[in-house]
Structure formats: C-alpha cells, structure tokens
Amino acid sequence: MHVLRINTRTREARTEPVPQTWERLGGRGLIARILLDEVPATCEPLGPKNILIWAPGLLVGHMLSSCDRISIGGKSPLTGGVKESNAGGTTGLALARLGIKALLLEDRPEDDRWWVIVIDEQGVRFDPADDLVGLGVYASAERLRERYGTQPAISLIGPAGEMRMRAAGIQNLDRDGMPTRISGRGGLGAVMGSKHIKAIVFDPPKGAKPPLVDPKAFREAQKIYNKALMEHPQTKIYHDYGTAAMTSMTSHFGSLPTRGFSEGYFEGWERLSGEHLREVLIQRGKPSLPNHACMSGCVIQCSNVYADEQGEIITSPLEYETIGLMGSNLGIDDLDVIARLNHEANDLGLDTIEVGAALGVAGRAGLLTWGDGEQALALMDEIRRGTPLGRTLGNGAVVTGQVLGVEQVPAVKGQAMPAYEPRVIKGTGVTYATCPQGADHTAGLTIRAKVDHLNPEGQAELSRKVQISMAGYDTLGVCIFAGFGFAAAPKDIIARLLRARYGWEDVDENILSDLGRETIRLERAFNWRAGFTTADDRLPEWMTREPVPPTGAVFDVPEEDLDTIFDGL
Amino acid sequence: MHVLRINTRTREARTEPVPQTWERLGGRGLIARILLDEVPATCEPLGPKNILIWAPGLLVGHMLSSCDRISIGGKSPLTGGVKESNAGGTTGLALARLGIKALLLEDRPEDDRWWVIVIDEQGVRFDPADDLVGLGVYASAERLRERYGTQPAISLIGPAGEMRMRAAGIQNLDRDGMPTRISGRGGLGAVMGSKHIKAIVFDPPKGAKPPLVDPKAFREAQKIYNKALMEHPQTKIYHDYGTAAMTSMTSHFGSLPTRGFSEGYFEGWERLSGEHLREVLIQRGKPSLPNHACMSGCVIQCSNVYADEQGEIITSPLEYETIGLMGSNLGIDDLDVIARLNHEANDLGLDTIEVGAALGVAGRAGLLTWGDGEQALALMDEIRRGTPLGRTLGNGAVVTGQVLGVEQVPAVKGQAMPAYEPRVIKGTGVTYATCPQGADHTAGLTIRAKVDHLNPEGQAELSRKVQISMAGYDTLGVCIFAGFGFAAAPKDIIARLLRARYGWEDVDENILSDLGRETIRLERAFNWRAGFTTADDRLPEWMTREPVPPTGAVFDVPEEDLDTIFDGL
User: Fold this and answer.
1) Which of A421, B74, B130, B427 lies at 20 to 30 Å from B272 by C-alpha?
2) Whole-prediction pTM value?
C-alpha cells in the first residue's frame, strides 16, 4: 500500500510510502490524521491549502460483506471543521486494488480548465473535462463509462460541486454502474469543484487484491462474521425494507422530522414506510427492486432500485434519510415525488439531507407550500440554474435560514440534521451536538437502544459509546449495518481479521473502541485548532425552547453532559 | 442615574439603581460589562436571551464638543460576538438627561405586533407601531416627529431591521431631526427588529441635565479641552472637508478599496475627494452644506448636507466610508450616485459599509458592472423588496460571498471591512483582525501614524495602542475626532472632567488607557465565552495570498503578533 499525492495545480503525481503513524489507520481515522498532519486547520476550505482525501477503510479490499466503503474527507466548507463522508459502491475496493492507502488531492488550479484524473497501473494522468462541465451526474457518468469502460470505479461531482455549493457531495458508482453512492455530507463536492476535478477514474489491474498475511485465518474469520451477520434479525429487516424500515420506528416515537422540523409525527407516514415502499417496488417489478447490493459481496442488500410506473428508473436507492428530509420534512407523502426529488439531488450532486433541510427552511419562510411536490421540484430547478435563491438552497440549511430570516434551522456546526428528531431521540441529539462532524446520524444513532429516549439522563453516556463504535467502524470501512454482524460475532472477530490481513499480532478485542477513540481524539484536535470550542457542541437554541408535537419534548440534556462527553477519551 | 429595563414580551419597565460594578463604565465598556453579566454568550442573537442596550458614554450630557455619543450594543447577529456601535446625534444627550445610565431591551414578543416605546418623565409606555411597519426610515421619522414633537430624540429601524437582515443598523436623529446618525455596524437593527420595536422615543424633561459634582472645575476643564480641540489643525481639516478628507490620503497610499477590494487605487479618486465634495456643496449652496454638526456644541462639524442640483436633500452626511464602499469599491466616481445609494441605505436602515461590501462581492460575482450606478440602485431595490438576492445582500458581505460563490470577501468575524485596505495599511489590518468587534476602523485606525504602513513589523504594537485609546474614547462617549483635542490638551484633562462630573478623586491621567484596557478585556471575555479563539483573529486567507495593486502588498503581519497583541492587557 502507498500514498498517492496529486497536485491539481501542477498536475503532478507522486507515490510515497505510508508514514508509520498512518499505517494502522484507514478511512475516517486516517483522514483525521492526515488533516492534522498536513492541512492548516484555519485554512479556507475551498482554497489551495485544503487537501481532499480518499481513504479506504482498514478492512476494504476483500469483499467482506458490507466492509468495502470509501471514506472521502477534507476540511469541510459547510462546518469549517474536520470532515469524513463515506459511501458504498465500488470506489473503496478499487483504491485497495490499486494499492492506494490514501489519495491526496492537493492545491488548486489557477486557470479555468477542468479535468478528469485517471489512475491505473500506468500511473496518473489528467484528461480534459471540458465536455463534462455543466453536465449532471447521470449524463457525466454515462459519458465517462463510454470513454473509460464499465470496469473502473469513478468518483465525480455534479453541477452543484462545480458551482462550489456547500451542500454538494461526491458521487461514486455502485456495482451496477449507477452514480448514486454519495459521500454526501459536509460539502466535499465543493472542495472537489474548487480543485477543478470533475471526476476521478480508478482503474485497478484485473484481479489485483491487497495482500493477506494469513489468507486462511482471514477466510475463517470471514466465515464466522458472515454467519453472524446473516443470522442477525436486523439483516433480514434491512434486506426486505431497506433503511425505510426506520419510518415506522421514528413515527412511533414521534421523531420523524415533519414540515421543517416543526413536528415529529407525519400523518402520511405509512405511505413513506418500508412496508409500503417494498409493496410498490414488488408490484412494479423490474427494473424496480426491493433489495439490491451497492457493494459486491454484501449480504444485507439494503439498497433498492426505484422505477416509475413506466419502468423508468428514477433513483437507486431511495433511502430513509431522503424520505424523511425530502418527504415528511416537506409534508410530502408520495414516494414517486420523493424519488424524483432524489433524482434531481443526485443529478446535481447534492446531499439530500442538507438540501432537504434547506427546502424545509424555505417552507418555514413561506417559499414552499407543505406537500407541494411540484414547488419543491421547481426549487431544485432554481439550484440547477444557479439563481440567487437556488444558490442559497444549494449552500445548505444554515445559509438558507440566514438569507430567508428563519430562526428554526435544524443544524449543528453548520450541517443539517438527518431524519431523527433530536428533541425526542435525545441520545442522537447528543451525537448531533458533540460529534466533530456536525449533525450526523451515522456517527452515533441511539434509537435502537432500549432506553427512554425522552429522558435526558444517561443520553451522553449512550451517545459516547455509540460514537466510539461508529468512529471505529468508519475507520475500518465497515457499513453501519455490518455492525450488527460484528456485534453478534465473537468479540475478537475484528482483531482476527486485522491480524490475518496485516499481521498486527498486538491487536486485541478492544480494537474497535481503540480505533474509535483515536479517531475522535484526532478529529477533536483538528477542530480545536480550527477554532471550535464547547460553544459549538450545542443544538440550536430554539430546540431547547420550542416543544415538538406530539411528544412536546424539548432538548434538555444538560450542557455539562455535552461538555464532558469525551472526558478521558 | 439609573438603569432602565424594558421587557419587550411583557411590555413591563423597571427602574433600578446602577450596580456598583457598572458605575465607572459607560458606552462601549458598559455594554461589554452588561453582556458579560446578563447575556448567555452562546445565545441566539435574534432570540429572546439577547439584550439590546443603549448606554451613553461617561462624558455624555453636557454638550462637551463631540462628546455626546450614544453607544448601542448587544450580541451581534453578524459576528456572533460582542457588539457596540456608537453614533452622534441627539440620543446620547437625551438618555443622559433622562438620567438613564443604561437602557436594556430584554426578551422578545411572541406575537406579531410592533411597538414604539416612549420614555419620558412619566415613565415608559408602548404605543402601537402598526402604521409604521414597512415604512422607510425617513418617512417613519417624519411621522414620529409629527406624533411626538420635534423635541425628543429617537432611535429607529427601517425595513431592513424589520426583516432582521444582519446588515441592519439603528438610526438616530441629528440635532436637525434628520434620521441619519446610524449605529450601523454588526446588525443591531436586526436585534431591534427581533424584539418588534420600530422606534424608541426619548423625551427628557426640558432643561434637565445630569448632575455635576464640581460645575466650576468642569467648565474650566471644558474650556481647556475646547481650546486644544479648536487649535488642532485636524479640526480645521475635518471642518472643511469632513471625513472625505481621507480619500486623498488613502489614494496616496494605494489603500482605497476599489472594485470589490481587488485594487487599492481608483482612477476616479479625485471626484471622490473631500476637496471635490466641498466644491460641489459650496457651488450648490443651501440646503447643501459643507459643514454641519450632528451634535449640539460640536466645534468640528465634520458632517455635511448633500442636496442634488435641484436643492433636494439626498443625504446627510456623505461620509468617507460610504464614498469608499459604495463608490470606489463599486467603481463609481459620481458623488450624486453615491449619495443616492447612501439615501437608499439610510432609508432601509442599512450599514453602508456592510452593504457596500456586499455589493462589491456581487460585483465580483458578475451581478454588478463596475461603475454602473443604476445597477447598484437596482440591487438596493432588491433589498427593499426582500427578494432572495436582496435578502442575501442585506445579510452582509459574508453571506453574499457564500451564496454567490465568491471567495474574496473582505470581512473579519463576519463583519465587512471599512474603506482602508488592510494589506496596505497593515496596522489597521491588525485592528480588523484582532478587534473583538470584527473589522472596524473606528476601533483602531493607524493610517495617521508616521510609520511605513507596508512594513509588517511593529504594526501589532501600534494597533494595540490605538485600540486601547479608542476603546477608552468609546467608553467616554467621545467622538473619534475629539481625540485630537484630548491628545493635545494637558494629560490629566479627561481625569479632571470625570472628577468634576462624578467626584471620582482617584481617577488619574491614565484613565483613558485604563478604561480602554478594561473594555477590551471585558469584550474578549465575552467573545471567549461565545466560542471565539485566535482562529477568529485573522484576515481572510486570500488577503495573505493575493497582492493588491498598485503596491502589490499582501497581509503579512505574523500570526504570532496577532495572537499576542493583547498579552498582559
């Protein structure tokens, strides 16, 4: 494995050995380490000093079920702090096969030209991207696959990233070539846009795989893990219903963001449920699919393919967060409409959470009638056209609130909240408040814990525990849902996999927590240097004051609990 | 003297004795003290926990020349930190005559009604303001003067403050009843708007004056100060040319912000000079006036009245900062056009510095052709209509840069820079970077110092010295130009005035610096609690990289100098 540095100004590439302090990290943890080592924390995120990083997790490369995720990161233009956003699809695997431990995109061009970077056995080259500029993600991906074949993995941005909108993400292909696995959060698409890179094509040599120190032990451990994952009841639920399985659960708790986070219960929730989604997809038949794997080897297959009644694919997958933020959050109860909004966001290269939250803020400002899908689509078109309103929305919920004069913006550290109402699921509220990434459900979702979610007591402890685990999984390249398998398998399963792959004999059953704690420590150190303080570890004030129906809950976890959550990390 | 608290939700008022720790402070220093004592530093600036404060300086009340300024402050919605913005006019005097050491507007209403607060001998009452909502500042002031007479002082906001735009200020009447003395900086108009107060009418009893412990000693000291001020050559310059006298000086140094801070020299500068302005005003004759006092008793009279060729008053005064930000910064060299832009900003209740900088950013984004006054006026009209673009501009330069995708925003801590290019006048750049208020020239302008402004060495020391003095003057209620008089008078002149007024026998010739240091300490403490760190004490990164013609200077004062500037304060 090596480090690949590409200077986007000089268009020079350099391969380097992996520094010792980077070796035992991958994915999210490695990104935090690199940022601390190489990026001035106070730099302008869209300026030449920011570095955009691709880093596969430690377990990536061998098609372990749900363990081939790619982490992309840098200093976030949305939060001003550390950012890692991971995705499924084929990019992680391709980097591992190319032997790339970390890819660093440095500097930025001084002229107006745009490029496609191609990375293969021969090395690195820059191809002009002039014909792709302004094209949507779908059309760009199609053209790139015509040009470079269907084999390579591709990371690319859409018009939103080109326009350096802070809600822009970076798309990755899934194993079917659909460009919809997005490293969506934190505006990394704008960072890629600032460097004038439209796409990166990762073309590993056929059959290449990262080495295994002990292939036999690896396969044994893999078998045990796979079995545990397969047998876990949650795997079946996600297989059948995908992430939309959450709709009924959040509805039950009164924690489904509704009409601009003004309510926690949506009367149309059943039409947004996993059950209903599955019915629609089965009824429509192919190309609609209720289960679909974004990565080769995944046994969960929580993804889906959503086609309209005429059999035209609209989006893949339709996920719970999108359903929440672009559905109930906008008062919309029609999956077809949500899928079309999702398609628009995908094609523009936008994070559906951030832009859905921004649309909710626009609704609060009276620019969107709740439930009016055509209006919502018209607002997405404003983004595409780059109008002042569109540019506002495309820069996320906080800027939208500032411009439109809306106080009730659901965001922390500048990043919009996912579809778990934090006044109700208070442990997740603690995660939103204290996670170095800004409001992020994948950083520590607590909704499954058997606790009284409305009781503020003990929520910080719960959040801490889950945040540490998730930071560990994100460093391993493990999907959030694979965690069920690892948790059910013998305690040393991750250690066994790492030992078999890398020969790290000193790794023990605490490795997940060790990696998680190290990752959060590094992230907090970067944020601290960037100027973050405990003042940033807060939910917005209005959520501590305005009760959310029907529970009438406010966020009332004591600030002291927030400020001490990572003590002794 | 007493403290007056008004709760804008319950509409109850309460008079209280002055707490001991507030007694020896006034104006800017007192505002910092009150914020620290009473406002949670992390609160939402437009929420119910922010307090909007009026505090006359310590010397206000006796028509000492140029010493009757009113400080208005609170937590800034633009910077998120401490904010004090002072103005001339009649408000300071009226508060002192009412015996008000500090007026605190607390909480905010929960309904949609708007109010005028009337404060007189009888006490405090709330009058409905429904007929004033949406009216411009000029029409509102006229109606208020019809209703309450021409005697009272008035603080009021325009449509921008009602819309809670972050570039909105609070206007005060001058001694001729013109509503154009603006506490412009930091978005305090939005705070007043958040509390649904359209105006406050201050109606002191006739002839009332704050007590003097030793009237004879006071008048003696006053005489000495007045003489020193009158004899100072700078007084004559400001009398003749007003603040526009700066145009030739900044042009000479290459530090006149031009076309969105992309250059430091404007080829049309002579048409923007104090000399040309004076010519125009003399040639046009009354009501145009080249010199005019905003406060009774002022011998400097740096203000002016600017009427068009038909004798219709457009604005009063036309100031250097407006000429810089809405003139050269937009490539406009026509004083008539600048005066009209100034009129629009005044009528909307907007800070001309902030909105001028925002227009400059719009110019960088291609939404304004440099030099096109009609386009600039059309953009001001967008603000009036509250369109998405208008709301963007009305929220200041930083939001405008975020929305329009412009990196080159001239701002620190969210507040736009005045008309001194900090890459060239580096001491003022240090002030912009380190002042707790955000970019602010009145907090420590260094352009008159006999130093090499382009040399980064020693600039922090210079800035520190001037920042301390200015914080002292702002606490006394002293106009920036009165400082020339105090500096030329005997060293103990301020101590003599304070002793004569308050009987503070322990006050000595260090009082200006003592007050200044105390003020900055308090302000930094509040900002620290609000989450500010040294990471916020920086000029924008692009100014450290992009040279400004014609000097080719970048901002290169070492960060260590910035971080240690207030050591041992």
Assistant:
1) B427
2) 0.97
